[in-house]
Amino acid sequence: MSLRTKDTKEEILIIGKQLIQLVGYNAFSYADISKKLNIKNAAVHYHYPGKQDLLLSLLTNYISQYKNLGTELETSSLHSLKKLEKFIDPYTQLVDNNCICIIGSIASDYNTLPDVVKIKISELIDLVIGLVEQTLRKGKKSGELNFTTPARTQALLIMTNLAAGVQLARITGKQDFVAIKKSILQHLKV
Amino acid sequence: MSLRTKDTKEEILIIGKQLIQLVGYNAFSYADISKKLNIKNAAVHYHYPGKQDLLLSLLTNYISQYKNLGTELETSSLHSLKKLEKFIDPYTQLVDNNCICIIGSIASDYNTLPDVVKIKISELIDLVIGLVEQTLRKGKKSGELNFTTPARTQALLIMTNLAAGVQLARITGKQDFVAIKKSILQHLKV
DNA sequence: TAAATTACTTACTAATTAGTAAGTAATTGT
DNA sequence: ACAATTACTTACTAATTAGTAAGTAATTTA
After folding, report:
1. pLDDT at A1 over 50
2. B58-188 belongs to which homologous superfamily?
């Protein structure tokens, strides 16, 4: 075993993720990544032979991270509103960095992606919807949350507020996202 | 004056609009347009020298169309819910055609666009938000609609539900958009 | 009817794209 | 110690991209 001082493969993934959130999947090239890491474009291909391999790895990472968040939220004793805030907070970070969320970015490019990626995206979205839905369901059952629409629909409403909220706020200003976030949480209060 | 049997310039705009809604601004080329119209790529450049000119024309069209809808809704005696349905209906069409809305598509690519286009997008979005906001405001004043958040925030919530709703529904299925639409209207009922 | 304008086509360029094949230096395993 | 593997670089290719310059046929204008 060696002490790794460099982890190019992981850094590529980080830059790739940033670029997808900043400019979108179809607007960045392997040259953008290699320039930022001071390596050659072929080095990127060595770790991720095709652009779709990079995206696939990224989505796989997201899936495992959201699975972790899912079990964390299930076992947590936090108030349901705090759980939802935990889910929502990263979106505020995105607005601050002039970025949009991966799901919204990739969903916009959906029709240009190979089938193997489409399936992975579908898996990720189902996972995230389910995560929000379960949090809402539990919160309603315990009397911590209040809403009348079916849990899945309520989850869809929240997710669409967030995904398009960051997209719009990048153009109209951060205060619009802040208003959306506040309104989401206010609306769920008992 | 001549009888025009062909209107290439207008057809280019129609195809461009379709492509932006289907695959996104950065995923189509002038070759895609010229092939569909059986003309040469240089003919597209003749009418719209650069891709940004095409997008600019498209946005200008949208702005005038939404201005028309705005005055139509202001003078109309329709119930406010029916007015909002008139605004929402085109989104259902989009889902049926595997497309997303122009605003959501362009917002995702926002950071890759030249400043002159960014300004036009901003203008369009402000216009559309204002249109929904005014309809909500009037509907509340007349007692036809019920909501507690500020009118602008409520407009943002509806717009984000719609924009990201079509993005998600393309992946998870039309029934999710139908549920979102129903919920938006239900939520506003007195 | 001649000149100008319109709506293109032909033919091209320079830049960028994803991707590959062959080579190399350093590390690791046996 | 030597073979294999890892993580690259060098050097390239073929396709696609936006965009241009020059030419042309048909229509319009003066």
Report:
1. no
2. Tetracycline Repressor, domain 2 (1.10.357.10)
